[in-house]
Amino acid sequence: MSRFLTNLKFWALAFSLLWIAAVVFFIADHPELARAAH
Description:
- The chain has 38 residues and is mostly helical.
- It contains 2 helices and no strands.
- 92% of the residues lie in helices and 0% in strands.
């Protein structure tokens, strides 16, 4: 059971990092959005 929880934590971390990277890439690809956000 603990092995499954560790695996779940790993996938949650990997998914959140991937999501953050995708958002950063999207904003970098659309400079007008970055200017509008500030």
